[in-house]
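The authors assume throughout that readers already know how a fold can be written as discrete tokens. For illustration, here is how one protein appears when written out as sequence plus structure tokens:
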Amino acid sequence: MAETKVTLPTNKPKVELIGRDGNAFAVMGACKKAAQRAGWTNEQQEALLAEMMDGDYDHLLATALKYFTVGGRDAEEEEEEEATCENCGEPVDNPDSALCDYCEDEEDLDAFDEESEDDE
């Protein structure tokens, strides 16, 4: 069966990568969230991640630059400082929480796994 090639959008969503130096997973997560916000399909998001992982860290960054407008915050955005996750730096929906939804879910799963191991 022939593999269907997914065409990635030409719109370049903005993604913030400052503070993610050296953390490939954080870069991929930020790009995936930006793609979701821009309305990319799941297939397009998966194709993006596959292309990002098809090389070394420099290739990952080159791919981010190819499909996203990468930059720092402008003055207006800095005034509207939003809470960010202490683990991955993604925006936090609940300002009373130190973790984003994804990291909270991961923490809950880790706690569940530890409880399951203790029960054995």
Q: What stands out?
A: The radius of gyration is 17 Å. DSSP finds five helices and two strands in the chain.
